[in-house]
Each structure stands twice: as C-alpha cells, then as structure tokens.
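We store chain and fold; thus.
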Amino acid sequence: MDLAENALDFHDRNCVGCSERQPVRLPNLTELVRQRDDEAAQNESARRVHEAAERAAIERRTATRAALHQGAAHHVGGVLDLLDALDRTQSEDAGRALAESVRAVPDAFGANVRQQIIAVADAGGEVRTNAALSALEAAGGDAQMLAEVALRALARGDAIERAGRVVAGNIAGAFTAGLDVATLLAGAAAQNLVWLARPVSERFYREGRQSEPAGLITSRQVAADVIDVAIRTALRHREKEQRRAGAYAVRALIHAGDRGAGLRFVNDLIAAFSLPDDGYEDGEASLTVARVLAESLTGQLEEIDRVLVATAEHGGADERRGVLRSYVAVFDERDEANRRAAHKPRDAATEVERVAFARILGVVSRLPTDNELLREACDFFRDTSPVPWDVMCGAAPALLGTVALAADELTGQGRKSRLEHPQPEALQELEIASRHTLLNNAINFAMNSVMRVAATHPDTLVRDETIAAVLETLEALPDRAEVLRARIISRLGALGARPVAVALVLPWVYRSLTDPSQQIRAAGATSYGRLVAEAGPDSLPSLVHETFLVLITDPFVVVHRAALRVLKEGYLPEAFLDDARARVMHVIVAHADGEHSEVLALALGVWLDLLRATNRNTPAKQTAVVKLLRKLNPSDAVEFIRRGRGGIREATGYGECVIDLLEHPETYNASYGELIEELGVLPNVEVARLAGRIVEAGMTISSVEPWRSGQCLQVLIDAQAWEAATELANRRAEACGTTRDLYPRRLQAQLDAAMIETESAAAKGLVDQVVAHAQRARELLRQIARDAEENRDIRGIFPPVRRSPAGD
C-alpha cells in the first residue's frame, strides 16, 4: 500500500484547518498535500478543456443535423432526432431506438445521413460507437466505409466487440476496394483484435464472453505482418492477461487452418514463460501458453519439439517449467469452457503423445535438482489415466529405475558438507525436508503408475509381464535398499485380483512376513491385508494367515501397528479371530502406559471390533476400555470416541470421560461439538447424574468459544435437568458482565433462563410461577427488540464510517 496515500488520508481526516502543524523535514505532509492539490488542479483543468471541446463538437454536429432536418422526409427526420438524442445523452435506449428505426427502412437514407451517423461513431464513447456501428450495418453501408469506422473504433478501444464483428465481415471487401487496412490496423486496433481472441470467464463482478477471433483471422488475411506484430507484442507483454490473449490468438489462427502459426510464434510463446505471472483470477498465463504450444505440436511436431528440447536444455527455470507444462498439456484435454474432459484409457498413442510422454518421463527419471520442475513432473504421474496403454507399458522399466534412483538419493540425503551448502543450517534442513517430500512423491507416483498397468491393463499378458518386471526389480535390489524393497512389497498385495497374479506375488508376501527387517515385515503386513482384500481370505493358505498373526505381537511398534491396521479393516478369516483377539490384548497390555498413544487407541478399537465379531463384548470390557482411554492423548481419545461412537456408551464412567475431554486444555476446539453431541445421546438419567459437571464444562469451554455453553445448555434442557439448566443459563448471563458490546448476549442469556424456569415450573404444576416467569420472558423480549432498534447502525455487519467534518 502507498504510504503517501495513507498519510494524505490521515491529513484529510484530522489535519485540515489545524493551526498546530509544523513541517519537520521533506517530504512532509504540506509538500505531499501541495503536490496532490497541484495534480488535482491540472486534472480538473484538463477535464474542463476536454468537456468544452466535447460540447463544441456536439453543437457542431447538432447544427449540421438541424440543417439536414429541414425539408427531410418524416422518417429521416425521426432518425436525425434519435441520432441527436444518442449524441447528447449516450443512452442505450436511444441507441436501440436508432438501430431499430434504421433497420425498418434501411434503403431510405442518403449519404448525408450516413455521414452523420459516422460522425457520431467517430465521436467516441462505448454506447455511441456501438449504436452508430449497429445503425450503419442496418443502413447497408459499403464494406470500405464500415471497416474504416470499425477500425477507428478499435484504435480508440470503443465498442471493440461490435467493431471486431464489423471488421470480420467487411475488411476483406474493404481491402479489395483499396482501403489501406494495414495503416488503420497498426497499433491499438490490431492489439484489440488480439484481445478479443481471449475468452472471459464469468465472475460475480463481471460478465463472461466467448472467444471472438473472427476479426483477427480475417484481418491477418489482408495484413499478416501487422497482426503478427500485435500477437508478438501481446505474448511479450508484462501483463499476464495480454499474454493470455496472445496465446489464444495463436490458437485461433491454428484452428482457422494456419498450420504454421505455432512454429511462427514458438519463440514468442516460450518467451512468455519467463515474464511475471500468478495464479489469481483466471490462473497463470503460462498454463494457457503451454496448452497452445501443445496444440502446435500436432501441426509441426519435429520442428517445435526441437525448439522445446533446446529451451529445456539451455533456458532458465521458468522456461524449463513452461516446456514441461507444454508436454503435459498434450494429455490435458479441455472443452470450450476450459473444463477437463473425461478420460477413457486408449490402447494406442498418437506420435505427439509418444514424444510428449517421453519428454515428461525424461524429466522425472533424471530427478532434476530444480524442485519446482520435479514437483510438476511428479504431479503428472499422480494420474496417468489420460496416457494410452502402449506408452505406459513401455515406461515401466524407466519408472522402476526412477524409483531406485529416488530411494538411493533419499538414503544419501543430508550428508553434504557445509562448504557445499553455505546457507544457515535451519534453511538447509528445510530444503532437505522439501527434497525428501519430492523424492517420496516421485517414488509413490512412479510405483502407482507401474501398479496401474500391472493391475488394470486390459491385456492380462501385459499385466503378468509387468508384475514379473516388478519382481525382477525386487530380486535385483541390494541388501542396503531396504526402504525401497519395503515400498515395493507393500504394494504387491494390490495385484492379487487374479489367481495367476496371486501365484506370482504370494511367495514374496509370505517371505516378507518373516524377513529380519522390521520395515520389510511391516510392509509385508500391509501387503497381506491388500492381498486378502483383493483375492479373498479363502484363496490364501492357512500358513500365511498364521504367519501374519505372529506380527500382531511383534516387538517392534512399526510392525504390530501395521498388523493392527490390517485387522481394523476386517480382513482376517473367521477361524483366526479368537487368536487375533488374544494377541491384540497383549498389545494393549504392552502399551497400557500410553507412551504410544496412537498405537494404544488403534489396539483398543481393533479389540472392540473383535469382541463384537465373536459376541464377547460386555459392559465390563467396555469399562476397561474407558479406563484405558484416559491414558491416551486428548486428540487420540476424541478420535476414538468419534470413530467408535456408541460402542462403549454402556461402560461405567463413559460420561465422565467425555466431560474430562471436554474440559481438557489440550482438546482441540473443533472437537467440542462432537463431544457435546455425545453427551446429548446419553440416557436422560445419566445426563441428570452428570448435570453439575456439564454446567462446569460448559462454562469452562465458553471462555474459548462462548456459543458452546449454549450447546451444553441444550443437552440439559433435552434431558429435562431444569435446575442445572437454570444455573447454567444464569451463569452465562453473569459471564457477560455489564459491558455495552455484550449487552445483547446478556439479554439473550437472561431470556433463556426465564424460558427454562417457565418450563420447569410448568413441569411441576406451579401455575403462579409459570405466569411470573412468562411475564419476565416477555419483558426481556421487548428489551431485546428495543436494544436492537436503538443500536441497529453500530451493530451492523458494515458499521457506518464516521469521519471528521474536515474529512467529509
């Protein structure tokens, strides 16, 4: 924000007429005010000169029209009157009336009347120019005259949409008739035609429109050099929407059959990548430029690809990212509204798709040090459904190699010397953490792409070949590649949808369950769960299930946590449930101290599920779970209650546990609502027993989120705990104090108390008290209405701004 502007605003609000001001140094307020006032005076003078010239011009045109009006036919005189009204008022109604009158008798006007319409069009202004052009078209003006007037309007920037359509229909004829269209187009006129090629998205503050490139396309047929210069100017403009318009202009030429447009502007399109950009409004302009380059590849693949490759090798970071986006955009099909089209996997790729995919794969397989470039390359592999099957099949070896390289870099990350990294240590750690995230994404997305081929390719032979390639990679990994081996193994189970695939991956899954490495055993547990989900529990030998059960009591947390997660999904055959339940109990005992809170919460949830599955769930066991809940971190305990809602409500002490969590200082505010809802479903007798604690809990959390005490109040009202509800309502009113800003809240709290006391008295049959409390409630309602009316202005969403008299 401009500091000078703020200082002047302060001056206007507070300093006008003040006799105490003393200049301190330059620049000071006096100097700023003088400069501002001088500029305002100059602008005012210029405005007056312009208005005087405008009035004089209107009077001259009016005099000419008055001369023509004498002796003119009735309908001609009417048109002149309408033209006069349009000229003076610039009213849209007058413009529509003029166009309709001319359209009714288009052949009845001579050259003099047409000249007057042209004069009004040339006078400028959006409404005048638009209406005059419409009238000239309706009057049947010749192509040269229409094109000339429209080009002048484009040069001024008036009614450019109408002018663009007029140019589209008449510029060819005007050129044939001898009009110097190149001179008229040069500069602003051609640039506005480029601007019209850009579609405008509808927003709540503006209307949208489709791309209107017809004027641009026809103009290039008669003035190619001028239009090309305008497009290049737009593509190299620092304003991103101008570059977007330039890109759409190139796209319009390509769609109009100009196959050489992409190559002709390729350097200008690439130059747009390095100019200032942002993601606001309609997004980055570089994305539009990239999509246009992607379309250009279809027409001249070899030539444009050569330029893009050279740019990727020798260009800057922004240009390299732009080149990558261009290849990615080949697979990003969009409709006219710029929405992504639905993708149905195809078997065979086009040559453009083959080249583009190879370039993208080349980027990600090199794991470039440019993290932004790597991030966008990885994002492409997040969803490879638009990529045809044949190129995906051929990419499996390269993707597996990328996985190996990324895993190797992960194990060696952070070992470089301080001389190689002169930044502060904290910054180094942030950069290393960011790089780790990218490398992990590269591994995950590359593996997902390979697994997609192995699991869903329409040809089962290709699936089996891909699975074999994955297993060969596993076999070839050195012992030190433990992390990578674990990642691959964890995904093998997802391939078990067919008996042949199960036979291929099962030996590796079984072997991993007994591997010496804890990471491999954890990955094996995950893969086992996926394999059971895909193939079904009965398709695996009992020995595999029994081996998995051993992992539940594995001494390493990472292993038995993975096994518990598998059990949570319910993948174990029924015959092994009792054994699993006993083993999970051992895990609960081992973690009963709560040191690994998330593991204890997971084990408790699995144990309850197994108890229900084997019909062994009892209130006593639920009570034991509630006691252990108190060992958990508040966030884990709240999550346990949320996920297992209703599963332990019969347990002794459950209500107290929920209230303790509600009052715990480490409980997240966002969890209050769910905990209060849980209190609300308890039996009324239980709520009544805990009513005093609910009152205290409501007041405790009201210091953080005041409305939560109202939710606690509703729980007490629903359970008809009238005395506690009355106490809470009164305490809410007292907590508001006597400050003016909280007065409405205090009145509402007092009204709640009066209403509750009315209900309580009615339940007890105390008629006199019902009448007294009801009268009190009515009086409070009147006070609330009176207060709202008296303070309506100052309590509005946007209170009026009070400025000093000097600033008005």
